[in-house]
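Deliverable D5.2: sample structural annotation.
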Amino acid sequence: MRSIAFALCLLPGIVPAMDRATADSLVARATAAYTQGDHAGALALFDSVYQHWRSAGLAYAIGNCHFKLDQVPEAIVSYERALLLEPGAEDVKANLELARQRTMDRVNELPTFRLGGSWDRWLGGRDVDQWARRGLWGWSLAFVIAALALLSRGTLRTVGLSIAGTCILFALLSVGLAARRLRAVEHPAAGIVMQPRVDVRSEPREGATTLFLLHSGTKVSLGAERSGWVEVTLANGNVGWMPAAALQVI
């Protein structure tokens, strides 16, 4: 199993009922079980940690367990969650593509603006808090440089204040990207079809006209919800309604 780092972290709203030492111990046991071919046992251990802690590596490992157990839709959900936490992770992308090749529908990838894995890694960071930390560094540098500039005179003061202003702009950008990352993780805008076959209808009710069929493992973007139904959009632009219970939010 190729792996990315198990950099466990807490997300807002998650109660740390499991301490870090226990989590690390369970991850080590799960990794050993996976290596020995006990994929079901490894999945149970990894999942018990994931209830309290989050990391791209942990979601990736859970996805690998599901894939080994031939639970393809569940594997896709976990790989997608790993990419939310660490965009651009090449191992995750490779395994996600392997899982998608075992689905029936070929409209899995939602349209996004991408400049490759390096851009994804830079924009998303290795963890949810990376841009928040960069924002704090930006504000700190801006304060220190501005203070030194005010104690200086002439050209040095002008240059110093310009650099401080640049640091402030970087800090503001970082805060915006940090908020964007947190929203993407806390409120995913996509889901994976979990049922073998689902009729996507023109209206949110049984008996409405069937527009098209979807099969397990297909990724959809999520829209409005109404009476147990959710509006979904495919990468090719097709839109319809399906039962919310038929999919799992990433």
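Annotation notes: The helical segments are 20-35, 39-50, 56-68, 72-85, 90-100, 117-124, 130-150, 154-186. The two ends are 22 Å apart (CA to CA).
The annotation will be released with the project's public dataset once the embargo ends.
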